[in-house]
Write a structure and sequence with these properties.
Blueprint (H helix, E strand, L loop, with lengths): L22 E3 L4 E3 L7 H16 L1 H14 L6 H32 L3 H9 L3 H14 L6 H15 L4 H8 L13 H35 L9 H5 L2 H22 L7 H16 L1
Antiparallel strand pairs: 1-2
Length: 280
């Protein structure tokens, strides 16, 4: 079995605060080195991995495959070989997207001052992951609240391919390599590239209109979306606006029709079929 199918399959968040692994995620659970249990950057990084595995179609499928690979006693050998091959392919097709999302969100969930310190301590590969998102998002969305709402939704969209629906329809198929549209690495890179090519202005306008409608409907006094203190002054309203903005980002991405995405009833049906397959 390949090394990344053991503990710490997803590249661990290493060398953020010291030249050793600070935290890791194995597709089923996160773990943090005891010396880093109070590190917000490490916690939020691993939390981002966890959320992808729990709440996105591609993340859920890979997590299920990992559970079978870890099962004791082991399932039938031919079945395990199919599962392992598919898990390998999914890992290779999603590792970069996982780390881009987790590194960016891990820092943006901190205060701006703390994030600035953490960014300077990132090792080169993780700095590249972080900048690939920050260079596109940050110039147009000034507060960490906006940045998290936008990038987390984009990342979840990238992990929302139609692979799960195809997989359950074929009853435990073997995938040695995924089609491009099923690869979260390609999907996230393509989404960020589309935004960088000029669509980010359109997305920002969409979110401004969404915020205007929110303030009009709720009667809350409008605050500066690009300022941190506007959000922290009204945490409940800020949470509600955050949900509205995330929904607006998802709707906007879907409307662009850049790539297939598994949503709504087809997603529910695929998850139900996956549950039935795992129980059989």
């Amino acid at each position: 079995m390949r090394a990344h199918l053991r503990d710490g399959r997803i590249q661990p968040f290493g060398a953020l605060l010291a030249p050793r692994v600070a935290g890791w995620h194995d597709g089923e659970k996160a773990a943090i080195d005891f010396d880093f249990v109070n590190s917000g950057a490490v916690f939020h990084h691993e939390q981002a991995h966890e959320t992808i595995f729990l709440k996105t179609p591609d993340g859920i499928l890979l997590s299920v495959l990992y559970r079978f690979l870890d099962a004791r006693p082991r399932p039938e050998r031919r079945f395990i070989r199919r599962v392992e091959t598919t898990a390998n392919a999914m890992f290779e097709a999603s590792r970069v997207a996982h780390e881009v999302a987790a590194t960016y969100l891990g820092l943006k969930m901190l205060s701006p001052a703390e994030a600035g310190i953490a960014e300077r301590l990132l090792p080169p590969d993780y700095l590249h992951f972080y900048r690939s998102a920050a260079d596109v998002i940050d110039p147009y969305f000034g507060s960490t609240y906006l940045q998290v709402a936008v990038l987390s939704t984009i990342a979840h969209f990238a992990f929302g391919s139609t692979l799960l629906a195809e997989f359950v329809a074929r009853n435990w198929p073997r995938y040695a390599k995924l089609k491009r549209e099923h690869q979260p690495n390609w999907r996230l890179d393509s989404l960020l590239a589309r935004l960088a090519e000029g669509k980010v202005n359109e997305l920002r306008s969409t979110l401004d209109r969404t915020a205007d409608a929110f303030f009009t409907h709720t009667g809350h006094r409008r605050w500066d979306l690009d300022a941190e203190d506007g959000w922290t002054a009204v945490p409940v309203a800020g949470h509600l606006l955050d949900l509205a903005l995330a929904a607006a980002v998802e709707h906007w991405l879907t409307a662009q029709q850049w790539m297939p995405v598994l949503q709504g009833e087809p997603l529910g049906a695929a998850l139900a079929r996956l549950e039935a397959l795992t129980a059989s």
